[in-house]
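seq as requested:
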Amino acid sequence: MAYEIPVTQARAELAELINRVVYGGERVVVTRHGKPLVALVSAADLRRLEGEEEEAAREQREQIIRSVSSLGSLPSAPGEQRHRFGIAAEHRGAHERDD
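struct tokens:
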């Protein structure tokens, strides 16, 4: 659990708080009016958190790609015409016939 401290007190004790984080392995949450404002964490914790964010973003991208890729294998609806260039080709063909 993190140690909480009001911002006014944190200003006065910043050097001590940094030592608690770096050497004591603590996490410090600075509050304003009782609400969390910022957190002091070690550089190692920050690297770990950033790595977790990158991993989550990579997994999300891969999931989106798998979802979109699976759409190509869905069967066409009954009676649906399949064209190589889709709706754009149909529209262009209709437009060229009108000329």
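The chain has four helices and three strands.
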